[in-house]
Inverse folding.
C-alpha cells in the first residue's frame, strides 16, 4: 500500500477515488491545489479512501432505491423496506458473480448492484408517473460516469466498444446495414489504433 506523508493536498489524488466522476473532480482539484505541508499527516493511496465519494454515492443509491420502491408500495413502507432490499445483492448475487466470473468480492457486489439498479431504471423510464424522472436521472449519471471513464482511460473504452460492436451490428442491421457495418469497422479501427 502506498502512503503519502506530510502533504495535505494528496487527499485530492485521483487514485484515492473509485468512480470516474469523482476521479475527474479530484484531478482538477489536485492540479490547482497549492502545496500544504502538514507535519505527521499520513494518507493512504487506495481507491476507497474518499469519505465524500463514499457517502455521496451511498446516499444517492439509497434515495434512488427508496424512490423505486415508493413507486410500488408508497413512501412510508419504502423507507424501511429499502434498508433490507439494498442488502440483497451483497448477500445473494455478489457471491454468485464472484464464483462464476472470478472477480474480487467488492467488484462482484458493485456489478450486481449497478446492474439491478440499471434494469430497474430502464423499466421505470417507461412509466407515465414521476418515477420516470428519477430513472432517467440515474441512467444519465451512470452514462456520464461512463463517458468520464472513457476520457480518463480511453483504452478500456475502446476494448469495451470492441465487445459491444457485434451486438450493435445485429441490432442495427434491420434498420441500416451500412451503419451496422460502419460501427463494426470503427470498433476494429480503434483497436488497431496505437
Amino acid at each position: 500500500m502506498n502512503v503519502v506523508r506530510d502533504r495535505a493536498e494528496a487527499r485530492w489524488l485521483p487514485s484515492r477515488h473509485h468512480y470516474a466522476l469523482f476521479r475527474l473532480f479530484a484531478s482538477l482539484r489536485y492540479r490547482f491545489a497549492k502545496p500544504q505541508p502538514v507535519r505527521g499527516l499520513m494518507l493512504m493511496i487506495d481507491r476507497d479512501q474518499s469519505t465524500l465519494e463514499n457517502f455521496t454515492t451511498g446516499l444517492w443509491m439509497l434515495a434512488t432505491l427508496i424512490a423505486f420502491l415508493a413507486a410500488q408500495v408508497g413512501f412510508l413502507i419504502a423507507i424501511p423496506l429499502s434498508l433490507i432490499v439494498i442488502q440483497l445483492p451483497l448477500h445473494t448475487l455478489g457471491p454468485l458473480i464472484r464464483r462464476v466470473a472470478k472477480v474480487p468480492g467488492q467488484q462482484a457486489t458493485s456489478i450486481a448492484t449497478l446492474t439491478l439498479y440499471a434494469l430497474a431504471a430502464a423499466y421505470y423510464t417507461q412509466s407515465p408517473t414521476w418515477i420516470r424522472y428519477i430513472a432517467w436521472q440515474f441512467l444519465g449519471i451512470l452514462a456520464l460516469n461512463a463517458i468520464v471513464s472513457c476520457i480518463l482511460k480511453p483504452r478500456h473504452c475502446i476494448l469495451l466498444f470492441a465487445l459491444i460492436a457485434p451486438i450493435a451490428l445485429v441490432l442495427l442491421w434491420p434498420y441500416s446495414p451500412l451503419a451496422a457495418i460502419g460501427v463494426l469497422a470503427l470498433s476494429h479501427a480503434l483497436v488497431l489504433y496505437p
User: Anything to note?
Assistant: The longest strand covers residues 37-45. Strands lie at 2-7, 37-45. Residues 25 and 139 are 20 Å apart (CA to CA).
